[in-house]
Specification:
- The complex is a heterodimer of chains A (195) and B (179).
- Chain A has 195 residues and is α/β, with parallel strands linked by helices.
- In chain A, 51% of the residues are buried.
- Chain A starts with 11 loop residues before the first strand and ends in an 8-residue tail after the last helix.
- Chain A has helices at residues 20-32, 44-51, 70-79, 99-107, 120-132, 180-187; strands at residues 12-16, 37-41, 58-62, 90-94, 112-115, 136-139, 144-146.
- Helix content of chain A is 31%, strand content 16%.
- Chain A is globular and about 40 Å long.
- Chain B is mostly helical.
- Chain B has one domain: HPT domain (Four Helix Bundle (Hemerythrin (Met), subunit A)), CATH 1.20.120.160.
- Chain B is built from nine helices and one strand; from the N terminus they run αβαααααααα.
- Chain B has helices at 3-7, 17-22, 30-44, 48-66, 76-94, 97-114, 121-134, 137-140, 148-163; one strand at residues 10-13.
- Chain B is extended, with a radius of gyration of 22 Å.
- The N and C termini of chain B lie far apart (45 Å).
- In chain B, 34% of the residues are buried.
- The chains are: A alpha/beta (195), B mainly alpha (179).
- Chains A and B meet through helix 1, helix 5 and strand 6 of A and helix 1, strand 1, helix 2, helix 3 and helix 5 of B.
Chain lengths: 195, 179
């Protein structure tokens, strides 16, 4: 689908980032996109409080959220069978775009990874991608989260699929920073058996 | 997980409230949403200097306190690295290219130190000085290529870090041997 429009009215967003200024920027972007319910939190405890007693609709979480990081928090949310928000869409925001971080984000059950700095188009397109590309959930002894082998039906604009996408080799445990399109590719590599 | 293991998995669809409601008609079309977001960022922009001042003050304090004489905080380099990324990220979103460039350079140096490269106080100091310069009104809107001497000098300095052989890394108490 080309340039899908998303309707964010009445959806409850939780933006979790220790950086209050960045939180404000993301919050402002979401408001610009039509969101009218946004909660900002600074740490994992804030997320847990936000998740308690209410259903949130999507979590935007910094990968280094104090005290233990957003990836561990994502893992905890996905593994807790008593958590009513267990299947909530989770978008990880990270300035550390090494392949190992992106793979970890995928393997703890994140729906999407957005590289910081986030532009308005980057954020809008990733929210649209989550909305228009529903994926089944997988529940195993070692993994709970969106199917990591999902079939790509089409990218939103700004996430162009390139001819060489299938040929990227997953790096070693540490490596150079990846671009946003490389991150998107890495999140989808499992379906082609390259991961 | 192996393909076999994932094939044994229980699979089910969750049509989340986010997916259901976000697909409703009546949302803000992409181009309009982006235009509004850009306008919103313009409104925020004047507060960037104040935020940056606070970040630089904190970064200077952390470096001064931990860098030259060692530290009891084993995480301080990683924290400084994260703080530089934060400055870089916000600087990029707000369109301050010179701040972004210097903070990005400095983050690479801290990242290299984290990986075992020698701590060099002079490299850190010159970047912090460059950040203090870049935050000033007359430099804030410049791009690195408009200050070729500064930017090429900082680039050369940053290239030092990954080339170092790193055998003078951190001591047990978290301090560094300076070369």
């Amino acid at each position: 689908m080309k340039d899908p429009t998303i309707n964010l009215r009445d959806l409850l967003f939780v933006v979790a980032d220790p950086n209050s200024y960045l939180c404000m920027i993301v919050h402002s972007m979401l408001r610009s996109f039509g969101a009218n319910k946004v909660i900002e939190v600074r740490d994992s405890l804030g997320v847990v409080k936000a998740l308690t007693g209410q259903k949130i609709d999507i979590l935007l979480c910094d990968a280094k959220l104090p005290p233990h990081g957003g990836l561990k928090l994502t893992h905890a949310i996905r593994r807790n069978i008593n958590n009513e928000n267990r299947t909530v869409p989770i978008l990880i925001m990270t300035g550390d775009t090494r392949a190992t971080t992106i793979k970890t984000a995928r393997d703890v059950g994140a729906n999407m990874v957005a590289a910081k700095p986030m532009s308005p188009s980057s954020l809008y397109d990733r929210l649209a991608w989550i909305a228009f590309n529903p994926r089944q959930f997988i529940d195993t002894a070692t993994y709970f989260g969106p199917d990591r082998r999902f079939k790509i039906e089409g990218y939103p604009s700004g996430v162009g699929r390139r001819k060489g996408d299938q040929e990227i080799v997953v790096g070693e445990d540490a490596g150079p920073a990846l671009s946003q399109s490389e991150i998107d590719n890495l999140l989808n590599m499992a379906r082609t058996g390259q991961d | 997980m192996s393909d076999a293991a994932e094939q044994d998995a229980r699979a089910f669809f969750v049509d989340s409230r986010f997916e259901q409601l976000a697909r409703r008609p009546g949302g803000v079309p992409r181009e309009e949403a982006l235009e509004r977001a850009r306008a919103m960022i313009e409104e925020i922009r004047p507060s960037f200097g104040e935020w940056l001042d606070g970040e630089l003050k904190e970064l200077s304090r952390v470096v001064e306190q931990n860098g030259p004489h060692g530290s009891n905080d084993p995480d301080w380099v990683n924290n400084a690295y994260t703080q530089c990324l934060r400055i870089r990220d916000v600087g990029t979103t707000m369109g301050y290219d010179l701040v972004t460039f210097v903070a990005g350079n400095l983050s690479e140096i801290f990242d290299a130190i984290n990986s075992g490269t020698d701590y060099r106080a002079d490299l850190i100091d010159c970047h912090i000085q460059a950040l203090l310069l870049a935050r000033q009104e007359q430099y804030r809107n410049l791009r690195p290529e408009q200050l070729p001497e500064l930017s090429s000098g900082l680039r050369r300095v940053a290239e030092y870090a990954p080339r170092s052989n790193g055998h003078a890394a951190r001591t047990e108490n978290g301090s560094f041997h300076e070369s």
